[in-house]
From TrEMBL:
Residues 2-149 form the Phosphotyrosine protein phosphatase I domain. It catalyses: O-phospho-L-tyrosyl-[protein] + H2O = L-tyrosyl-[protein] + phosphate. GO terms for molecular function: protein tyrosine phosphatase activity. The keyword Iron does not apply. Its EC number is 3.1.3.48. Keywords: Hydrolase, Protein phosphatase. It comes from Secundilactobacillus silagei JCM 19001. The gene is wzb_2. This is protein-tyrosine-phosphatase. CDD domains: LMWPTP. It comes from the Bacteria. Belongs to the low molecular weight phosphotyrosine protein phosphatase family. Pfam families: LMWPc. It is an enzyme of class 3 (hydrolase). The keyword Hydrolase applies.
């Protein structure tokens, strides 16, 4: 089993969309018994909240299920559980490096680092930009490459 954890600041915009998109890719690849997917937040700000209405609208428009999702902050067990911790921006990376047990720090990855022409870039935060569909498209440009990498590492 390979465990993939998507993390952003609030776990109501970017990481829930990443979770839903990646679960769909895993399902379409027939790998749902081998790859588990979850998401969480670096902050407790939105703890218990459903995805943002803008994220819900985009997920619904693309046929993705978000009905079970609620924001939650990352825990010590998440760092242990995850094989890949895929984050949305450099602030997430900084915050997670502060929180992570030393042996888990190497799991922390920046989502767009998987694309050679977007290395080091942040996933735009629709909390600020209100461009939920654009964020969805950026995630869709990167996540198949993550699935390829995870498949080839297994
Ligand atoms: P997310 O977006 O990290 O993509 O879920 C945000 C959600 C909430 C806040 C900021 C960003 N906030 O400040 O509460």
């Amino acid at each position: 089993m390979t465990n993939v954890l998507f993390v952003c600041l609030g776990n109501i915009c970017r990481s829930p969309m990443a979770e839903a998109i990646f679960k769909d890719l895993v399902l379409k690849a027939g790998l749902q018994d081998q790859i588990q997917v979850d998401s969480c937040a670096t902050s407790s700000e939105e703890d218990g909240h459903k995805p943002h209405p803008g994220a819900r609208k985009v997920m619904a428009a693309h046929g993705l299920d978000y009905s079970y999702m609620h924001s939650r902050p990352i825990t010590r067990q998440d760092f242990d559980w995850a094989d890949y911790i895929i984050t949305m921006d450099s602030q997430n990376v900084f915050n997670l490096n502060q929180m992570a047990p030393a042996q888990d720090r190497s799991k922390i990855q920046l989502c767009l680092d998987i694309l050679p022409d977007k290395r080091g870039q942040d996933i735009p935060d629709p909390w600020y930009t209100h461009r939920f569909e654009y964020t969805y498209q950026v995630l869709c440009s990167a996540l198949p490459a993550w699935l390829d990498k995870i498949k080839s590492a297994r």
